[in-house]
Amino acid sequence: MSPQAPQQHDPALPACVVNCAVYDRQGNRRDITLDAISDVLSIDDGSFVWVGLYEPEEELLDKLQEEFGLHDLAVEDAHHAHQRPKIESYGNSLFIAVHTAQAIEGHVRFGETHAFVGPRYLVTVRHGASLSYAPVRTRVEREPELLALGPAYALYAVFDFVVDNYLPIVGEFRDELNALEHDIFSDTFRRDTIVKLYELKRELTQLRLAVAPLQDILAQLTRIHGALVPDEVRLYFRDVLDHALRVNESTDTLREMLTAAMSVNLSMATIAQGEVVKRLAGWAALLAAPTLIASWYGMNFTHMPELAGPNSYWILIGIVVVVCVGLFAYLKKVRWL
């Protein structure tokens, strides 16, 4: 099939409803209204309904709860956009919460996607920084024979899209860390370098908190919940799990590298400060020698070496010069200057 044009929003649907469609046994799509959902599900013809929402109001979720028969606790969790990544089973349905990530203006912004999965429906609810799943629907609709596997395959496509969006973010972290290496080993300490390293580690830690629990969710979908995830779809979830493991390993490696980079940067700053202190101490020693000699001859004593001689002044200058030159040569040799 040729690529389809991006789906246009149905004016008959609320603004927060991005998509509401039914897919028949052959994977063909037909748009429907929210009120028609229960009518479609009442006919056991092998079709399933896929509804996509973005930051819906509570009244709309209550409406969908009535149409799909969603569990009260699952709907309560979906009302709030601050859920930890998890998978919960409610009879013959699942509620899944995952965190999404998006690079915006040089920083990583995090959002959430909540998914209700039943034998004949999939409801995805996006919150915060989350890319639209319209490209996902367009891709799977080009493969109707796979979409005919049911809502589990549509859920796989959504999770595959979420995990694939992690990969370029990890790549950006790696590139930025490589770019900072020159500043890390610079002779001049820059506060901006340590600030950037801290921000990178903070965002990378948040990314790991999003990726690590996703592995358990995907592992469950590959092993259990057989009534909702056919064997044909488990293979696809295993592929997404493999990608999630790679992302998690990459984040762990980068976190260790960032920790080492911060330690090296602070060590380099400490070493640089020590070198400055050594140089200051060396110059102070050079100044202390003539100061000490001159202070002796500033005392009101009668018997002072070379005090009465006709060349005492020049002899004293010579002694001061010899002492200073010798001290300078020694400090230069031990690299204090």
What layout of secondary structure does this protein have?
Blueprint: E1 17-23, E2 29-31, H1 37-41, E3 48-54, H2 58-68, H3 72-79, E4 86-90, E5 93-104, E6 107-118, E7 121-128, H4 134-141, H5 144-147, H6 151-184, H7 191-223, H8 231-296, H9 312-333
Parallel strand pairs: 3-7
Antiparallel strand pairs: 1-2, 1-3, 4-5, 5-6, 6-7
Describe the structure.
This protein is 57% helix and 16% strand. With 337 residues, it is of the alpha+beta class. The protein folds into two domains: 17-268, CorA soluble domain-like (Beta Polymerase, domain 2, 2-Layer Sandwich), CATH 3.30.460.20; 270-333, Methane Monooxygenase Hydroxylase, Chain G, domain 1. The protein has a seven-stranded mixed β-sheet. A hairpin with a 2-residue loop joins strand 5 (93-104) and strand 6 (107-118). Helix 6 packs antiparallel against helix 7 (191-223), helix 6 (151-184) packs parallel to helix 8 and helix 8 (231-296) packs antiparallel against helix 9. The chain is rod-shaped and about 125 Å long.
